[in-house]
From TrEMBL:
This is Tripartite-type tricarboxylate transporter receptor subunit TctC. Gene3D superfamilies: Bordetella uptake gene, domain 1, Periplasmic binding protein-like II. It holds the Pfam family TctC. The keyword Signal applies. Residues 1-38 form the signal peptide. InterPro entries: BUG, Bug_dom1. The keyword Thylakoid does not apply. PANTHER family: BLR1237 PROTEIN (PTHR42928:SF5), TRICARBOXYLATE-BINDING PROTEIN (PTHR42928). It comes from Hydrogenophaga laconesensis. SUPFAM superfamilies: Periplasmic binding protein-like II (SSF53850). Belongs to the UPF0065 (bug) family. It comes from the Bacteria.
Length: 338
């Protein structure tokens, strides 16, 4: 372990850096203070990283370690703003309408395209520019210990016996989690009663209280509760079992052969953002994803780092949209139902 020299031995530039590090430790107010005179990316202003879901959900769990690592890579503060509501569309719209200067970014998941597939209004995706696919993961079907559901087979049995009345919580109507569950029900030939929430965190709270039978969330949002035994993992949507939850079976191996869904999270900017800024942001995000503090967190949350550039991310967005549109057509889900 190295020691830091006394402040009176520092050069003027080192002393300035010390003051910057001290400001970073004080939180968002200090981060945005005028004393930040290091003018990088490209004019020294803070970057707003908007998470279009409440704190505590799967996207927010990535944002927390990623933001400080991205701040280091860009040389400016990166401030997280949770703007939930309307299956992520309120926060997403805020980014779509922001100045295209690279200082307002969206960190979201595949609910972005799921909501576009369901929405009756104008789609939001054309107003955004893909920057980086950050991570991939899986969705997780969960329940509470007193529900009587212990595995995929008992989950299917309760769906069949309830005749459409089993309550399943989803982090918003028309989210990727909702459409994934609806697609599974379509394959199984069953139906359910969906309860939309403003994100995964309040959904999990109601599951813990026993007021819901089951729910679908990004794995990271419920991982700690399953490991603690306060919630039960029914099944994951990935092709293979998740390393973080090796005892939880996949849907493919149990009740729904061939059924898989890989969820993802990525960063987007307003549509008019110049390519040069997008390239700078992508490089910084890639650097942040390799930060030891981020790499330490990703596996424990069931996240796999990706780092794909905007062109590849854009192709994934288009493919995801087509898949969700197919689900919406097959299940006749409509925006007005939520």
């Amino acid at each position: 372990m190295s020691t830091t020299p006394a402040i009176d031995r520092l050069s003027p530039s080192q002393a300035g850096r010390r003051r910057l590090l001290s400001a970073l430790a004080l939180g968002p107010v200090a981060l945005a203070a005028p004393s930040l005179h290091a003018r990088t990316f490209p004019d020294g202003k803070p970057v707003r990283l908007i998470v279009p879901f409440p704190a505590g959900g799967g996207v927010d769990l990535l944002a927390r370690p990623l933001a400080p690592a991205l701040s280091e890579a860009l040389g400016v503060p990166v401030l997280i703003e949770n703007i939930g509501g309307a299956s992520g569309r309120i926060g997403t719209q805020r980014v779509a309408q922001a100045a295209a200067d690279g200082h307002t970014l969206l960190l979201t998941n595949d609910t972005l395209v799921a909501a576009d597939a369901v929405a009756e209004g104008a789609p939001l995706l054309p107003h955004l520019k893909p920057v980086t696919l950050t991570i991939s993961s899986c969705n997780l079907f969960i329940t509470h210990p007193k529900s009587g559901i212990t595995d995929p087979a008992s989950y299917r049995r309760q769906l069949q016996e309830s005749k459409g009345q089993l309550t399943i919580g989803v982090p918003g109507w028309g989210t990727a989690h909702h459409l994934t569950s609806a697609a599974l029900n379509h394959q199984l030939g069953v139906s359910a009663k969906y309860v939309p929430y403003r994100g995964g965190a309040p959904l999990i709270q109601d599951l813990l209280n026993g007021t819901l039978t089951a729910g679908v969330v990004t794995m990271a949002a419920a991982l700690a509760h399953i490991q603690a035994g306060t919630l039960v993992g029914i099944a994951v949507t990935s092709k293979t079992r998740a390393a973080a939850l090796p005892s939880v079976p996949t849907l493919d191996e149990s009740i729904a052969p061939g059924f898989t869904h890989k969820t993802w999270q990525g960063i987007l900017a307003p549509a008019g953002t110049p390519d040069a800024l997008v390239a700078r942001l992508h490089a910084a995000i890639g650097q942040a994803l390799k930060n030891p503090r981020v790499l330490e967190v990703l596996p424990s949350q069931g996240f796999d780092a990706e780092g794909l550039p905007g062109t590849d991310f854009g192709a994934l967005l288009s493919g995801s949209l087509r898949n969700f549109e197919t689900v919406v057509k097959a299940t006749n889900i409509q925006a007005t139902q939520g």
